[in-house]
Specification:
The structure is a single chain. About 30% of the residues lie in helices and about 20% in strands. It has helices at about 1-25, 85-90, 115-130, 140-150, 190-195, 240-255; strands spanning about 30-35, 40-45, 55-60, 100-105, 135-140, 160-165, 180-185, 215, 225. It has a nine-stranded mixed β-sheet. Strand 3, helix 2 and strand 4 form a beta-alpha-beta unit. It is globular and about 45 Å long.
Length: about 260
């Protein structure tokens, strides 16, 4: 009787372990809140500890994600469509080498009005990880802020990601900028989708009308994508293979 009980217990234990393995991913997403000036930050990475990332993405949120001086206000970002939300739900799949840093503005995505502070943050992150591929990404108003940084030709950045943004008045100055990824949701207005067309050597006028498309410019290495998202959901581009393939191409070119 005891032997039968032990065999049943063993079978039950093995079953639980196997079942748990199917439900729990091998590598969990880690979110670390960091106090920082001028903005607090959330660091997102897919392991218990990250020492030397090969790829660092600074992500500037759009309107509706603003927080405050209290570190707990970073969690307001999880209530909308934002990479932090995906991380908490464990749906953001990244390799071990990737670190996403999300500054949290105290106003409605006013990064574009604080270019000096933003430049200092970028330099500070570069100094922490000088050998990493460093990209600046922004959504909506955050994309406008990233655009202004690109116009200023920040020396520490290797590329830019503009998500559902519209161009500022100085857009013509980015005519020959390389290593840019442009993403929109299919519900973004058509006129908005043409705002970054000057970044491409090829004609994307037809692609901007598509409900879904993926375009890569062989000359500039810039990429354009329209996904099945609303304007607010456009940061879901972070879950697209097409986006990460573009990122890894840049990483290979940099040799990281």
């Amino acid at each position: 009787m005891k032997s039968i009980f032990m065999r049943c217990l063993l079978c039950f234990t093995v079953t639980v372990i196997l079942f748990s393995a199917t439900l729990c991913p091998a590598k969990a997403i880690t979110v670390v809140e960091k106090r920082s000036n001028p903005w607090n930050q959330a660091w997102i990475y897919p392991e218990d500890d990250i020492v030397t990332p090969n790829i660092v993405i600074i992500y500037l949120h759009g309107d509706g994600n603003n927080g405050g001086s209290n570190i707990n206000d970073l969690w307001v970002m999880s209530k909308v469509n934002h990479p932090l939300k995906y991380a908490k739900e464990n749906t953001l799949q990244m390799t071990d080498e990737v670190l996403i840093i999300c500054p949290q503005s105290r106003g409605n995505a006013q990064f574009r009005k604080q270019q000096k502070d933003l430049s200092n943050v970028i330099k500070d992150i570069h100094d922490k990880f000088p050998d990493a591929l460093l990209l600046l990404a922004g959504h909506s108003n955050g994309a406008i802020a990233a655009y202004k940084v690109a116009i200023a030709e920040n020396p520490y950045l290797d590329g830019y990601v503009f998500i559902s943004g519209n161009k500022p008045a100085e857009s013509s100055k980015l005519q020959f900028t390389k290593n840019c990824f442009v993403a929109y949701g299919e519900n973004d207005s058509i006129h908005r989708r043409s705002d970054f067309s000057n970044l491409f050597d090829l004609d994307i006028s037809k692609s901007k009308y598509a409900k879904r498309c993926q375009v890569t410019d062989g000359i500039t290495k810039n990429a354009y994508m329209v996904g099945n998202w609303s304007h607010g959901q456009a940061p879901l581009v972070f879950l697209e293979d097409f986006f990460w393939e573009w990122v890894y191409e840049l990483a290979l070119e940099k040799g990281v």
